[in-house]
Design goal:
The complex is a heterodimer of chains A (about 250) and B (about 350). With about 250 residues, chain A is α/β, with parallel strands linked by helices. Chain A contains eleven helices and ten strands. Chain B has a single domain, classed as ABC transporter involved in vitamin B12 uptake, BtuC (Orthogonal Bundle), CATH 1.10.3470. In chain B, strand 1 and strand 2 form a beta hairpin. In chain B, helix 1 runs antiparallel to helix 11. The chains are: A alpha/beta (about 250), B mainly alpha (about 350).
Chain lengths: ~250, ~350
C-alpha cells in the first residue's frame, strides 16, 4: 500500500518518518509506521484504544527509544535523540495527561513553556503570552489561578498555550478532546484550525475521528501498531471501512 | 530556672535552628527535584567551615585537591561524549571550568596564602572552593543514575557521605577548628547577653531564606526547578533538562551547606565529621515537612534547634536522643494521616 501522501501542497517537509518500530521488551507496539508532515498541514492519526497512537508521539518526541528513520527539519535523528534537543528545534508535544505544573499559576505555566527560548537568549515571552491569550481569552481571565484548579477544558487550553509559548514548528496534540464536553471540543478544534494559519505543522492524534478528519488535511488510520489506511482526510472520511469502524452510519461518535 | 537562662537557651536554640532550617530547605529542594536524599549535605557544612579555618591558618585546604580530582573526572566523562558527538566547540569551556579554574585556584593558594586578606574575601574564596563540588558530585555520581529508584540514589548518597568524611579527615586532620567571630559586638537583652555573631547567623539565614524564596517565585530558573519537582515529564517537554535541574539543585545545596558552615564556625568547634550530626538535625526538620513543604521543614528545623537547646540544659546526656526521638511521633502521625503514594515510574 502506498502510504506516502501525494504532494498536495508543495510545502517544506517538517517531519518524515519511515519504518518506525517501537518495542516494549519483546512486544512490538509500533510496526513499520511511516508518515510525513509538511509546514502548515494538519495531519491526523486516528485509531482505536491501544493502537499505539500515544506510543507514536512519545517515540517521535524522544521519550521512548525507537528504530527506523526519523527526519525532522531535514536532520536525521539518532536513536538516542534527546527531548531537550528536539524542543530546541521547535518540536512540542501536548501529552494526553496534559502534564501541567499543578501548583503553579497559569501565567507561570505559560512562561515555562518558553523556558528553552529564554535560555537561548530570547526575551519576547510577554508578547508571545499576549498572542496565546488572544487565542485563549479564558486563560487570561484565569492567569493568576493555580493550574490544578482549572476545569478540564481550561487545562487542555493551558497545555496547548504552554506548548505554543515555545513558538513550535511542529505541534503534536495527543487526544485534545479527551474527557471534554462537546461544546469545549468544538472550541478546541476551532482553535486548532486557526493555528493552521500560523504555518505551524500539526500532528493530531485523536479517537474522535469525525472531528479530526473534518479539520485535517491528511489522515492515517493506526490499528494494532500498523498504519492500515492513509489518505487525504476527505477521502478517508468517505472510505466505507473508516465509516464503519470509526464514524458510524451518520451517528456521531460519543 | 530563671528568665535569663530561658532566654539564653532560646537564643542558642534559634541560632542552631536557623542553620538547621537552611539545611532542611536544601534537603527538601534536592529531594523534590532529583529524588536524592542528600545525606552528604552536612559534609558541606564541615567542608565550608574547615576550608575557611585552613585558609586562616595559612594552609592550603585539601578541598582544592578534591576540586581538581572531581573536575578532571567531569572533564573526562563529558569530554569523551563531546568528542564522540563531534561537538568540539564545547570542549574549551568544559576544560576551563573543570580543570583550568581549579588549577588556577591551587596555584593562587600556593603562591599567596590569603591569610592577610579581609575576612569577607576569605569567605568568598572558601565558597568558591567548596560550592563547585556540588554540581561535580552530581555529574559523577548521580547523573548516570538519574532514572534509578530512590533507594539506589540513597545508597549512593551514603557512599558519598562516607567518602567525604574520610577525605575530610585526610584534608583537615582529626582536630577541630573554630574561626574568629565575624563581629565582637555584644548586646544585652532582658539581662541576658546577646552575641553579635548570634544575630548575624539569624539575619544571614533569614536573608538567605528570603533570597531563595525570590529565586523560586520570581526567576524563570527557580520556577523551572519547581516545575521539575512537580512534574518531571512536563518539565522535560518544556525543554528543562533534568541534568540542568540536578546540577542547579546541588549547586544551591552545596552553597547553603558551605555558607551554614562558615556561619557557625565561630560559634562551635567543627571537626571533620561534625557535619553529619548537623545535617541529620536538618533532616529531622525536613522530615517534619514531609520532604515536600519548605515552610513546615524550616519551622520544624527551628523546633529541633529549640528542643536541642532546652534538652541540653535539662537532660544534657539525652540531648541527641530527645532530638532524634522527635522523628518517631512525626513519622507516626505522617503515616497515619497521609495516603500512600506510589513511587513515580520513569
Amino acid at each position: 500500500m502506498n502510504i506516502t501522501p501525494p504532494h498536495l501542497h508543495d510545502h517544506e517537509v517538517i517531519l518524515d518518518v519511515k519504518n518506525l518500530r517501537v518495542a516494549y521488551g519483546k512486544v512490538e507496539a509500533l510496526h513499520e509506521v511511516s508518515l510525513t508532515i509538511r509546514r502548515g498541514d494538519i495531519v491526523t492519526v486516528i485509531g482505536p484504544n491501544g493502537a499505539g497512537k500515544t506510543t507514536l508521539l512519545a517515540a517521535l518526541m524522544g521519550l521512548l527509544p525507537a528504530d527506523g528513520e526519523i527526519v525532522y527539519m531535514g536532520h536525521r535523528q539518532g536513536r538516542d535523540r534527546e527531548v531537550e534537543a528536539l524542543v530546541r528545534h521547535g518540536m512540542t508535544l501536548v501529552p494526553e495527561k496534559r502534564e501541567l505544573f499543578a501548583e503553579m499559576s497559569v501565567e507561570d505555566n505559560l512562561l515555562l513553556g518558553a523556558f528553552d527560548r529564554y535560555r537561548t537568549g530570547h526575551r519576547d515571552q510577554m508578547e508571545t503570552m499576549d498572542e496565546v491569550f488572544e487565542l485563549f481569552p479564558r486563560l487570561e481571565e484565569r492567569r493568576s489561578q493555580l493550574a490544578g484548579t482549572l476545569s478540564g477544558g481550561e487545562r487542555q487550553m493551558l497545555a496547548m498555550g504552554r506548548a505554543l509559548m515555545a513558538k513550535p514548528k511542529l505541534l503534536m496534540l495527543d487526544e485534545p478532546s479527551l474527557g471534554l464536553a462537546p461544546l469545549i471540543i468544538k472550541e478546541i478544534f476551532r482553535i486548532i484550525g486557526e493555528l493552521k494559519k500560523t504555518g505551524v505543522a500539526i500532528l493530531l492524534v485523536e479517537q474522535n475521528a469525525r472531528a479530526a478528519l473534518q479539520i485535517a488535511d491528511y489522515g492515517y488510520v493506526l490499528e494494532t501498531g500498523e498504519v492500515s489506511l492513509a489518505g487525504p482526510s476527505q477521502e478517508l472520511a468517505a472510505d466505507p471501512r473508516v465509516i464503519e469502524a470509526y464514524l458510524g452510519l451518520g451517528n456521531k461518535q460519543r | 530556672m530563671d528568665l535569663q537562662i530561658l532566654l539564653l537557651l532560646g537564643q542558642d536554640g534559634i541560632t542552631n535552628g536557623a542553620i538547621y532550617a537552611l539545611l532542611a530547605l536544601a534537603l527538601v529542594l534536592v529531594f523534590t527535584v532529583t529524588r536524592v536524599i542528600f545525606i552528604p549535605q552536612g559534609e558541606f557544612v564541615a567542608y565550608g567551615a574547615l576550608t575557611l579555618a585552613s585558609l586562616q591558618a595559612g594552609k592550603v585546604p585539601g578541598t582544592v585537591w578534591l576540586l581538581l580530582a572531581l573536575g578532571c573526572t567531569v572533564a573526562v566523562l563529558d569530554g569523551i561524549r563531546l568528542v564522540r558527538e563531534g561537538r568540539f566547540a564545547k570542549l574549551p569551556p568544559l576544560l576551563i571550568f573543570n580543570i583550568g579554574l581549579p588549577l588556577l585556584a591551587a596555584a593562587g593558594l600556593f603562591a599567596m596564602p590569603p591569610t592577610q586578606l579581609p575576612l569577607a574575601a576569605q569567605v568568598v574564596i572558601s565558597m568558591l572552593l567548596v560550592v563547585p563540588l556540588g554540581p561535580m558530585i552530581y555529574r559523577v555520581a548521580y547523573q548516570p543514575l538519574a532514572g534509578a529508584s530512590v533507594l539506589v540514589l540513597l545508597i549512593v548518597s551514603v557512599a558519598i557521605h562516607v567518602a567525604m568524611i574520610g577525605l575530610g579527615l585526610l584534608f583537615f586532620g582529626a582536630e577541630g577548628s573554630r574561626t574568629p567571630p565575624f563581629t565582637e559586638l555584644s548586646f544585652e537583652l532582658a539581662g541576658a547577653p546577646l552575641q553579635g555573631q548570634t544575630i548575624l547567623v539569624v539575619v544571614a539565614s533569614a536573608s538567605l531564606i528570603i533570597g531563595l524564596y525570590f529565586f523560586f517565585e520570581r526567576t524563570i530558573y527557580g520556577k523551572a526547578l519547581r516545575a521539575t519537582a512537580m512534574n518531571r515529564t512536563g518539565a522535560r517537554l518544556m525543554g528543562i533538562p533534568p541534568v540542568l535541574a540536578g546540577k542547579l539543585c546541588l549547586t544551591l545545596a552545596a552553597a547553603i551547606g558551605a555558607f551554614s558552615g562558615i556561619l557557625i564556625a565561630p560559634i562551635t568547634t567543627i571537626y571533620y565529621d561534625s557535619g553529619f550530626l548537623i545535617g541529620l538535625k536538618g533532616f529531622v526538620g525536613a522530615i517534619i515537612g514531609g520532604l515536600a513543604s519548605y515552610p513546615v521543614a524550616a519551622l520544624g528545623a527551628v523546633l529541633v534547634g529549640l528542643l536541642e537547646s532546652y534538652s541540653s540544659f535539662y537532660a544534657s546526656a539525652f540531648k541527641e536522643v530527645i532530638v532524634f526521638t522527635l522523628i518517631i511521633p512525626v513519622l507516626l502521625w505522617r503515616s497515619l494521616t497521609s495516603k500512600h503514594i506510589e513511587e513515580e515510574e520513569e
